[in-house]
Design brief:
Blueprint lengths: L1 E3 L5 H12 L5 E4 L2 E4 L3 H10 L7 E8 L3 H8 L13 E8 L7 H20 L4 E2 L6 E7 L3 E7 L21 H10 L11 E3 L6 H10 L22 H13 L8 E5 L2 H13 L6 E5 L13 E4 L27 H15 L4 E6 L4 H5 L5 E7 L2 E9 L13
Parallel strand pairs: 5-6, 5-7, 9-10, 9-12, 10-11, 12-13
Antiparallel strand pairs: 1-3, 2-3, 4-8, 7-8, 13-15, 14-15
Helix pairs in contact: 2-7, 3-4, 5-6
Length: 401
């Protein structure tokens, strides 16, 4: 199987897969994802438990190509009767990397024709295409010389955990939030200490952290593509047991999670999201400005994805970009300079992890990073910076009431 992930997350995903499946399962990091050698049960377990993978793709056929005719021939080698009948629907999504073909749409059409022709030859009827709710989701990937056709066992992308309804502006994907936490080595164990996001937006980082701290499997609140696929029908009883076992592993958090935002509206978004995610009791939300909020504990890990552009004022007024507008028409440089000063005065002993597309963020904060991890927030190349905070004055940090 191939599990794609965001660039820079491959090693973290390989470690996660080994943790989920055990050392006896062969896992290899590759460019853009991880390959895993396993069976249908392996695929189900990865869909249920992986926080970092974007999808779990089951390979159907792989081979060289030069033209759309080659793709038709290649797709014809798949034993389609094992995967689909005329009563079922399907969808094909195509991606390419330096493919010589002129039209990806035509490439997709030729694979569709091959599937339909083979099923019609065997049964006298052909299945239908359903782009919204297919019984079989297929993923075609074209490299410069080779094509691979996969069955997408996930269906919808795995960052869709099944709980999000209300979205704030520019929400962080759950898979990226999980990657940030994994890069920091934060697993919600007692020795990890509290987790605090002072610029929580819609609450994605805090909710992901709380689910980790509570042992909640990320896929428990959603459906997966494999649940309608023919080769997985015989595993339905095992799938139900797998979910029951996952629910039994949930527990009270060993460490607290704190979050807040300067905007009342965003804090409300985040609180409602946490309720749907089943972790409202595991997160303490507070509407407060990150430039003024006192530390919620003596020490711990701060994890934040600060606004890239502008930032909303404390009353939730002003820019229509919500948390993307800096209050009092201040500049990003002013915000980060004040934030660093606040941290130096009050957050000695904390470790701060900051995701930013600005490679010069340490200079803006006037802090020296101890680590920078490349990560991508969708199409935006970012760095996750780690700062070990030390006192900048003689004042002793006091936890907030």
């Amino acid at each position: 199987m191939f599990l794609p992930c965001a660039a820079g997350v491959e090693a973290l995903l390989a470690a996660e897969c080994a943790d989920i499946l055990g050392a006896e399962v062969r896992v290899q990091a590759a460019r853009g994802g991880v390959t895993v050698h396993g069976d249908a049960v392996t695929a189900m377990r990865l869909n249920l438990h992986s926080r970092l993978a974007q999808r779990v793709l089951w390979p159907l056929v792989h081979g060289p190509y030069q033209s759309e005719h080659d793709l038709y021939a290649l797709a014809g080698h798949v034993p389609w009767g094992d995967w689909i009948t005329p009563r079922h629907s399907f969808r094909i999504d195509t991606t390419a990397q330096r493919s010589p073909l002129q039209s990806l749409n035509f490439a997709t059409l030729r694979v569709k024709d091959a599937l339909c022709d083979r099923v019609r030859d065997a049964t006298g009827e052909r299945p239908n295409v359903d782009t919204r709710f297919p019984d079989l989701s297929l993923a075609l990937h074209l490299s410069p010389t080779h094509a691979t056709l996969y069955a997408d066992t996930s269906g919808e992308a795995l960052f869709k955990r099944g709980w999000r309804e209300a979205k704030g502006e520019a929400p962080l994907k759950e898979t990226l939030a999980a990657a940030m936490l994994a890069a920091a080595g934060w697993r919600g164990a007692p020795e990890d200490g509290p987790l605090f996001d002072p610029c929580c937006g819609a609450g994605t980082i805090a909710i992901e952290a709380a689910q980790i701290a509570c042992g909640i499997a990320p896929g428990l609140q959603r459906r997966f593509g494999f649940e309608k696929m023919l080769p997985f029908r015989t595993h339905q009883a095992l799938w139900q047991r797998m979910k029951t076992e996952a629910r039994a592993q949930q527990h009270a958090p060993a460490v607290p999670v704190y979050a807040g935002d300067v905007s009342f509206r965003m804090t409300d978004f985040a609180t409602r999201n946490a309720e749907r995610a089943g972790v409202a009791k595991a997160i303490e939300f507070k509407t407060a400005d990150a430039l003024q909020r006192m530390p919620p504990a003596e020490g711990g890990t701060m994890m934040l994805n600060p606004p890239y552009g502008e930032r909303i004022d404390a009353k939730g007024r002003g820019s229509q970009n919500s948390r993307e507008s800096f209050q009092d028409e201040g500049s990003p440089a002013d915000f980060f300079r004040q934030l660093a000063t606040h941290w130096k005065h009050h957050y000695a002993g904390w470790t701060a992890w900051v995701l930013s597309p600005d490679m010069k963020l340490p200079q803006a904060l006037r802090l020296k990073e101890s680590l920078r991890v490349p990560m991508w927030n969708g199409p935006i190349e970012c760095r996750l910076f780690r700062f070990e905070l030390v006192a900048g004055s003689a004042r002793t940090p006091k936890p907030e009431a």
